[in-house]
Fold these 2 entries.
Entry 1:
Amino acid sequence: MAPQNDRPVRPVVDRLRIVRLVAWGLVAIALFGLAAISMGYLRTNGLTGGSEPIATIGGPFSLVRTNGERVTEKAFLGKPTVYFFGFTHCPEVCPTSLLEMGTYLEQLGADADKINVVFISIDPARDTPDILANYLSAFDPRIVALTGTQAEIDAVASAFRVYVRKETPDPKTGDYNVDHTAALYVMDAKGQFVVPIQYKEDAASAVAKIRRALTG
Ligand code: NI
């Protein structure tokens, strides 16, 4: 294209400058976003040194133990507590998590007595205290199981930001699955969230996280 001498050159230069500024602006926004995501990741994974609790995970609850005793979150203060959520009909995730929790407790040795482990049913319609007690008997006896009314379970799941989605029951059998968050929540002795343990996390890593809650 021939130079258009009848038009001033300057506006073209200005437009290029604006394009460059906008491009650098987008790069800056992208870098800022990445930095923010990285910090969020580091914080939720407990890799930064900050001692303040992250957001609000956990909170007050009133639920029923397998012996029928009603308890609140206060029953588990004074020791770090590992909370996790599931249901007795769970085909794979919950049995795996319960078995792995048993492994963590074994590896903690004598320190296992210095923590609480609490499994909360997110399927209270089927998980009565008796059914929970029977189910838990296959796993480490130090794991406490809690259930409650649907409203109580909804409230505690919401407090822990646990994702729960009940699938449509099978029209023939009435059986149903419940999708749910598989992470374990490590809380300190004051009930403040410390760090999550991921599903199938390496036992050494999980035990180190629990020990950190013990010393913190
Ligand atoms: Ni499960």
Entry 2:
Amino acid sequence: MTETKKKLAVLLSGRGSNMAAILQHTRDGELAGLAEVALVVSNCPDAKGLETAAAAGVPTAVVPTRRPRAAFERELIAAIEPYSPDLIVLAGFMRLLSPVFVGHYRHRILNIHPADTRSHQGLDGYGWAFAQGLSETLITVHRVDEGLDTGPIVGQARVDLRGAASLAEVEQRGLRVEHQFYSAMIRRALLAED
Ligand code: GRF
């Protein structure tokens, strides 16, 4: 493929298993030949995902949160802009983004949520599903607007939770799906842009 690849900027705050899966998909999966991870940014200096990205040779940046929201987001934009990303991919990024950031990257930000965003928003989607004894959860990939998990849905994937005996098992089943589904939805979003 001679065309230049689409660039992804991945934002995370912790473990980074989705980021690692996306990186793998850019190498030999859903996103191979289509996209590359140009940058991984975290608001948490000790996020494990930063280490994983650096070890894989991906540029990383840290933009600490401790300051007013607008100043934080302006610095985030300044860290990201040199990489000219086509898509901003939130992967366990634990900050709500304001119009400063969302307005700058309007329609170009994706997020993954472990539940149906029409039924549950915010933290701990797997804990919520487990506590209610749900027989399934709907992993949701959506575009990001100024609200908390309110943006338009790009796609949803069903996870069977029947017989899951612990929160750890719920999470394990869900993450297995997330790691495949997010890259498929990133692909869909990138191709929809052309
Ligand atoms: C995932 O469950 C994702 O759906 C949610 O945060 C978690 C991040 O996990 N938004 P990881 O950092 O990608 O391992």
